Amino acid sequence: MRDFSWKYFAMTGDVDAYLLYREAGESMVTAADTAAEEEQVYDEEAN
């Protein structure tokens, strides 16, 4: 979805496509942060 919205923005200059691209990128970062935090909690509980 992120790649599509970037390509669409690049071809058309549509601002909404760019905002969708940015939103998709932010959710990817948030998901990675959440996964790292959960892994740290599991490691702490295992010890």
User: What portion of residues is helical?
Assistant: over 70%
Radius of gyration: 16 Å
Total DSSP helices: 2
Poorly predicted runs:
none
- The total tally of domains equals 1
Strand content: under 5%
- DSSP E strands, number: 0
Distance between the termini: 39 Å
The main sheet comes to: none
Topology:
Elements: H1 2-12, H2 15-46
Helix pairs in contact: 1-2
Quick summary:
The chain has helices at residues 2-12, 15-46. It has 47 residues and is mainly α. It has one domain (1-46).
Describe this structure in words.
- InterPro entries: YqzL.
- This is YqzL family protein.
- Helices cover 91% and strands 0% of the residues.
- The model has no long low-confidence stretch (mean pLDDT 84).
- It has helices at residues 2-12, 15-46.
- It is mostly helical.
- The chain contains two helices and no strands.
Characteristics:
mainly alpha; YqzL; 2 helices; 91% helix; rod-shaped; 47 residues
